[in-house]
Structure formats: C-alpha cells, structure tokens
Design brief:
single chain, about 375 residues, alpha/beta, Aspartate Aminotransferase, domain 1, Aspartate Aminotransferase, domain 2, 2 domains, seven-stranded mixed beta sheet, about 40% helix, about 15% strand, globular
Amino acid sequence: MSAAPKSPQFWIRPEIRALKAYHVPDPGDSIKLDAMENPYAWPAPLVDAWLEVLREVELNRYPDPGARALTERLREAMQVPAGAGIVLGNGSDELIQMLALSVAQPDRVILAPEPTFVMYRMIAEVAGMCYQGVPLAEDFSLDLDAMLRAIDLHQPAIVFLAYPNNPTGTLFGADAIETIIERAPGMVVVDEAYAPFTDATFMPRLAEYPNLLVLRTVSKMGLAGLRLGLLAGAPEWLEEIDKTRLPYNINVLTQASALFALEHKAMLDEQAGLIRAERSRLIEALSAFEGIRVYPSEANFVLFRVAEGTADAVFEALRARGVLIKNLNPAGGRMRDCLRVTVGTPDENARFLAALEAALAAD
C-alpha cells in the first residue's frame, strides 16, 4: 500500500525513516556517569566573574560570524599549527555533518573502524552517503590489514579515526594511522575528542599530510554545555568545508563563555589531571572484580565486560542503586555484555564501585 500524499511517509526519505533518533536517557536523581562529561563544577568566584562577562553580551546583535577572537584563542589553547586553517562548529557533531555534506554523493563512502562513535554512521546516512564499518580486532585494537583492504575496495571520501576511540577507550597505534593516511584517497579525520586525557595527538603533524584533518571539542575539557568544536587542517580543504557552515553557528553566549573559560585553561587542565588519576584507580578497582574484563583506556571513561548475558541486569541494578552508566549490550556484536562508565569524582567513583559490588552479588 503506497503512502498518502501530504504524509511524512510519502515525502521523508526511506533512509531517514529507518533511522532511530539519538537517545539520551533522563538521569533523574542518579549519579550521572554515562556521558563522558567532566564531573567538576567551577568554583563560585569564577562563576561570578563569568556572569559579569555575560552582562556585557549584546543578545540583540548577531554574533561574529567567523568567531575570530575565539578562533585565535582556540588556536593557541589547542596548539593548532600556524599554517593550518580552522573551522568552528556547534559541537564536533556539526563539523562531522559539514564534512559529510561537503563530499556527499550517493555512491561515495564514509569509512571507520567499528565499534566507534555512532554519529559517523548516522550522519553519513542522513547525508545520503554509504557507510562502511571495519571491525576492530578482538581486543579492540585496529585491524590495519582489514582497514587497508576496505580503503582499497571502497575508496572512501572520508575515513574517521577516533583517537582515542569511543566507546572502547583504546588508542590506535600512530604507525597504523600514518599508513591509513598515506593509503586513503580522500580525507582522514583524526577525531581527538578525548585529547585532554592522553598525550597522543596528530595536531602537530597536520603539515606532513595534505589529506589529514584533526577534530577537537571543548566538551571533555569541562565545557560540554557550550557545544563547541574545532576542525583543523589544510586551508584548501577547510575553505571548501566552511561553505557548508550555516551563518552565525557559534552563538554570542558560547563565544563569550568559551573565551572566558580559556583564560582559565590551567584550571581545566588541572581537572583533566584529576580525571586521569581517578581513571587509573578506577581501572585498578574494576580489575579486582571477579568475572569482569576491563579494557585499557586513554579517555575519560572505562569500558568493561561482565559475565555473558548479565549486562542488562547489572545495568538495571546499578540504576536502581542511583548510578547511571552506559549499557552497550543492546548494540550487540563486539559490544555484547559491555558496559561503559565515565570517570567521576572520587566520591562518585566510590559510590559506583560499591553499587557494582552489590549488583554483582545480587546477580
């Protein structure tokens, strides 16, 4: 039976109707350890100083369309090489969308190892492109041979490499990434969303590879509410990609707030250091649980695998005890029996571990 005119079934593309919207659960009163956020709030005097800055913002005026002052501050804060171009986005999600739109044709491919950030696939499909996932190795390391075969076969317009990877926390080998950059016919986007929690980066190497772009965000620094991302790379690429950017995409409050926050980057870096230290303690504590496999992480979260068939029950038991983490088991495949916990404050982590111990005992 055909769809009736004037209905969404008639006009909306089948690929869109087949998608499921990105779901963010309501945490309620739970400790929120599911979204890779920085758990540390600003001290009250800094909040007061920030609010004074916002008093001067002219909400009746459009923002600087190029966010010039903020761009230069970000170039310094994220150590973007002098010769590289920069485009800002409303979060890294918008930049991923801009990248896809700039090359979108029905027969073109976006390629990434999997499991990885779900927005690569979702945005490829929204843009009307083909998406090709390449399975990671059993330990979630990069299967370089499989990646190279897929590149040769599909000739992707874009290869996305999350570095470190989400949701696994693994850091792919730099040598393997270099080989992929050299082999790929199109752009290779190294997504460094979790840069505050690792010393590895390809940002200083932009000049070495004409097809390399590096994606960053301020979200994991402790500024997730601002929705601000940065794409850096050769100007000839970014000049074209920038044409897909909607005018005034970085609003006045984000520009003013990010400029203020980056004046206090030392505090944000200190918080990242606390998270790194807590990550080590959390991995050590999780590794002591019988029947749990913990994976190495260079991000601000830890992936772990529970006994076969118990992930859903453990997740619900944790939620019943007031702790919300991420249940990856419904995704199936390599994520079967896996849960992911964001590194919180020492108190939050202790409460999570206590709740996990109780949940495993009940199970």
